[in-house]
Specification:
The protein is of the alpha/beta class. The protein folds into two domains: about 140 residues, Aspartate Aminotransferase, domain 1 (Alpha-Beta Complex), CATH 3.90.1150; about 240 residues, Aspartate Aminotransferase, domain 2, CATH 3.40.640.10. About 35% of the residues lie in helices and about 15% in strands. It has a seven-stranded mixed beta sheet with strand order 4-10-9-8-7-5-6, sandwiched between helices. A four-stranded antiparallel beta sheet has the order 11-12-15-14, with helices on one face. A two-stranded antiparallel sheet has the order 1-3. α4 packs parallel to α5. The longest helix is centred in the last third of the chain and has 19 residues. Bound molecules: pyridoxal-5'-phosphate. Pyridoxal-5'-phosphate binds next to α4 and α5. This is Kynureninase. Pathway: Amino-acid degradation; L-kynurenine degradation; L-alanine and anthranilate from L-kynurenine: step 1/1; Cofactor biosynthesis; NAD(+) biosynthesis; quinolinate from L-kynurenine: step 2/3. Keywords: Hydrolase, Pyridine nucleotide biosynthesis, Pyridoxal phosphate. One of its GO terms (molecular function) is kynureninase activity.
Length: about 425
């Protein structure tokens, strides 16, 4: 049996939910649809998104301002439709979870509350390969408080690409005020040991927050049980909610309802008395107290559709298929001259495999060739890292075969 027919057989036995998604077409080549591996950058559109977004937009046409309280999904409590599914996805209580703003904005709002430096404890620990937005966010927070040298960047050991948990823990001195790491690193695909690092950080007296951009919808999370202080994540990657779509935020129960400083607006006050229009806010004892503005309904709509899909299928089921797909891709790549820099241990990674490519092509040039000659969509991080994420909702074993076969041909040149 050829490798290709083997992949097709695996797809027949383990099909996923591809039929629920719009898969972009290819313009040339043997196959009608692209083999899409960039769901860790921008997830594909669920078919239901267009239908349900139009329903929400049409409520506006039909009802005008009355749409706040009437129609299929009234706008006033609309954000609450997202809370339950988002909370279940990250293993949090509904009161600990809110969908609002975008990721970096949420990180800033949360750091306003959770980065409270003092002259003796002011350092912020992040990974050296943090997504640049996180680096800029923590540096600007530190400068805002007058601690320009606060940020400590965690580097892997010489010759290694990923961080070791013990090396992270070793950096937890009594000067560390905040640990803010990516749950899954955007570059290497490494899944950090969130419970162990959280517990160690807190034992050292620090607050521990997580950027879950590459973890939410990718791996199961138990933020509440792990005692994570706060977290934020975007919804345009594995959560398939569309470009620049709204983000999630989580605050552990023990921090709710207290007198921690927060930035407020009219959506930080409790819903029951919001329209009494008083000058004093009454924040609820929930993550909704971190909301500032009234929610953008037409941006929330795709998030709601997508979260409902995750709720129906279940992140546990998706993770099982993800482990099978990623292992299959990894096995096919053993025949290709690239170095996989993502951990080989499946418990230390999500869907993504990051490949260091040798040879004459840059990652950008290679990804262009894969796209235009083979219809394989991969994500390039210059100069030499190609990221491939088989997404368990819609990627196939045949996609994995196409990616490995295309890479083998181009790399052989
Ligand atoms: C790990 C990580 N953090 C932060 C961001 C920035 O997100 P946003 O532009 O939505 O604030 C991204 C975007 O890809 C990311 O991958």
């Amino acid at each position: 049996m050829s490798r290709e027919s083997e992949a097709l057989q695996l797809d027949a036995a383990d099909p996923g939910h591809r039929e629920l998604f719009d898969i972009p077409p290819v313009f040339e080549g043997r196959y009608p649809e692209v083999a899409y591996f960039a769901g860790n950058s921008l997830g594909l559109r669920p078919k239901a998104t267009r239908v349900e977004l139009l329903e929400d937009v049409d409520s506006w046409a039909a009802l005008g301002v009355e749409g706040h309280l009437e129609g299929q999904r009234p706008w006033l409590p609309y954000h609450e439709l997202l809370t339950g599914p988002a909370a279940r996805l990250v293993g949090a209580l509904p009161t600990e979870t809110v969908v609002m703003n975008s990721l970096t904005v949420n990180l800033h709002l949360l750091m306003v509350s959770f980065y409270r430096p003092t002259p003796s404890r002011y350092r912020i620990l992040i990974e050296d390969s943090a997504f640049p937005s996180d680096s800029y966010a923590v540096q600007s927070q530190a400068r805002f408080h007058g601690y320009a040298d606060a940020v400590v960047r965690l580097k892997p050991r010489p010759g290694e690409d990923c961080l070791r948990t013990a090396d992270v823990v070793a950096q937890l001195t009594d000067e560390v005020a905040l640990v803010l790491l990516g749950g899954v690193n955007y570059l290497t695909g490494e899944l950090m040991d969130i419970p162990v690092i959280t517990a160690a950080g807190q034992a050292a007296g620090a607050i521990v927050g997580w950027d879950l951009a590459h973890a939410a919808g990718n791996v199961p999370l138990s933020l509440h049980d792990w005692g994570v202080d706060f977290a934020a994540w975007c919804s345009y990657k594995y959560l398939n909610s569309g470009p620049g779509s709204l983000a999630g935020a989580y605050v552990h129960e023990r921090h709710l309802g207290g007198d921690r400083p927060r930035f407020e607006g009219w959506w930080s006050t409790e819903a029951a008395t919001r329209f009494e229009m008083t000058p004093e806010s009454r924040p609820p004892a929930s993550a909704e107290a971190w909301q500032v503005s009234n929610p953008p309904i037409f941006s929330m709509s795709p998030v709601r559709t997508s979260l409902e899909l995750f709720d129906r299928v279940g992140i546990g089921v998706l993770r099982e298929r993800s482990l099978r797909l990623t292992a299959y891709l990894e096995q096919l790549l053993t025949d290709v001259p690239v170095q996989v820099i993502t951990p080989t241990d499946p418990t230390r990674r999500g869907a993504q495999l990051s490949l260091r490519i040798g040879g004459a092509l840059t990652a950008g040039e290679l990804s262009k060739r894969l796209r235009f000659e083979y219809g394989v969509i991969a994500d390039a991080r210059e100069p030499d890292v190609l990221r491939l994420a088989p997404v368990p909702l819609y990627s196939t074993y045949h996609d994995c075969w196409r990616a490995a076969a295309a890479l083998a041909e181009v790399m052989a040149e």
